[in-house]
Design brief:
By secondary structure, the protein is an alpha/beta fold. The chain contains 11 helices and 19 strands.
């Protein structure tokens, strides 16, 4: 059987003013093969997948590419692929494009949703789904036509452990029916049993690699960092919120003091992102009270005092260069030397070489670092980070950890981090003063 994908001396270059993203890439994905590409944040992994999907302009490519059969692609940020208001039409879209008999669509849609582990009615609004569930939805849309080639950009980044197991099952099923899989991943451990070929991007080229697996996760710290001191910075009492038939929160309580670092874990759709939006004043609960420095939480009162990095960083980027993006909040708050602050933040986060770049042309991980830097330059009292390590390689994660630790020590900044991968070796067990889990609409300590 011929290869599902064959790349020969492929190079990617977006314009003449910048160096090539990748050069001389040779790759063949055959039946029953799963190829995993690893590499630093911003090294070109997503660009290579976009090229394989046929989604880059011809003028950006040089070399040869052959692809046989249908390909299904899931981007790193699933929100950029969702077109419809409800789950059913979104999943069926590829079937409509392929001219499938409408009478056959409901069964195919149901099978794809089950395979992607998204047990929701087809009339569910897509806007109500968490990012992890959005990823499952886009995955179902890619699977519904039973493609011969599946292209996955960081499939584990947005998913909880159950979701990662579902993706592993999808990969296994595709390989068993003679398909091929090409994926990029910083955290490939959940899929390692199905990966047949390993590659690493180095010096703008694709090189064979040994399996890249994370070390054993660290034990939870026996001696926690010192808890925050002084009066409460943020207090939440008896918070309740209902979305349709789903009770998201029921009697949720939370107190955060200056200098604390709190980790909140939970599965996809458990309410982690919703909680950060309530704490930032962007969403009002049905009942309960949230105060910051004894004042009711409201955007006008929080400006410059609370920073929020969204799960989808591109949603909060708007300036034409990274430098202007980093300096914006500091300038708006009236702090001295906003551009100098921006350059310091860029250096600390390892993105100084991106200052003249447009934020929307950056990789997902680079956008995340830019959004974080833009929050830090305004020196907030409380920093809310919604799944902040998705899309970042190990070095970038360690760098972020160091920056947050330094800000806590220097200014007493409090940090709340959400995540769905509590067993990760990058969990930084020595960083958090408390670890909590959303369960039954409330927060409970993690033992």
């Amino acid at each position: 059987m011929s290869a599902h994908l064959r790349l020969r001396e492929l190079s990617i270059r977006f314009n003449d003013r910048t160096p090539p993203v990748l050069t001389g890439v040779n790759l063949s994905v055959g039946a029953g093969e799963c190829h995993c590409i690893v590499g630093p944040t911003g090294s070109g992994k997503s660009s290579l997948l976009l090229a394989a999907a046929g989604l880059l302009p011809p003028e950006a490519l040089n070399g040869a590419m052959e692809r046989t059969g249908r390909a299904g692609t899931v981007f790193q940020n699933p929100g950029t692929q969702i077109l419809f208001d409800h789950v059913g039409p979104e999943t069926a879209f590829a079937l409509e494009n392929a001219g499938v008999d409408p009478a056959a669509m409901p069964d195919k849609v149901a099978r794809a949703l089950a395979e992607a582990d998204l047990p929701v009615p087809t009339h569910t609004p897509t806007s109500s789904l968490s990012m992890g569930r959005q990823y499952r939805l886009v995955l179902a849309g890619a699977l519904v036509t039973e493609p011969g080639l599946l292209l996955l950009d960081e499939p584990c980044a947005q998913l909880d452990p159950d979701g990662c197991r579902a993706v592993a099952g999808v990969v296994d099923a595709v390989l068993k029916r003679g398909g091929g899989v090409l994926l990029c991943e910083h955290r490939p451990d959940p899929l390692a049993a199905h990966i047949t070929h390993w590659w690493r991007i180095e010096d703008h080229g694709l090189r064979p690699s040994e399996p890249v697996l994370a070390p054993a996760p660290p034990p939870r710290a026996a001696n926690r960092p010192t808890d925050g001191t002084g009066p409460a910075l943020l207090e939440v009492w008896d918070l309740s919120l209902r979305r349709g038939d789903h009770q998201v929160f029921s009697g949720l309580d939370l107190t955060i003091r200056p200098g604390e670092a709190v980790h909140v874990e939970g599965g996809n759709g458990s309410g982690k992102s919703t909680l950060t939006r309530i704490l930032a004043g962007f969403l009002a609960p049905d009942a309960g009270t949230a105060t910051l420095f004894d004042q009711p939480v409201a955007p006008a009162r929080l400006r410059g005092r609370v920073g929020l990095v969204l799960q989808s960083p591109s949603s909060q980027l708007f300036e034409d260069t990274v430098l202007r993006e980093l300096a914006y909040a500091a300038r708006r708050k009236g702090l001295d030397d906003p551009e100098g602050r921006a350059r310091c933040a860029a250096k600390a986060l390892g993105i100084s070489d991106l200052l003249d770049r447009a934020p929307f042309l950056l990789s997902y991980g680079q956008q995340r670092l830019t959004a974080l830097g833009a929050c830090l330059t305004q020196e907030p009292d409380l920093l809310l980070l919604d799944d902040p390590f998705a899309g970042l390689d190990r070095e970038a994660r360690e760098r972020v950890h160091g920056v947050l630790d330094a800000e806590r020590a220097r200014r007493g900044m409090a940090v709340l981090v959400t995540g769905h991968n509590p067993t990760s070796s990058l969990r930084f067990a020595d960083f958090y003063t408390r670890e909590l889990r959303i369960s039954g609409g409330r927060l409970e300590p993690v033992a």
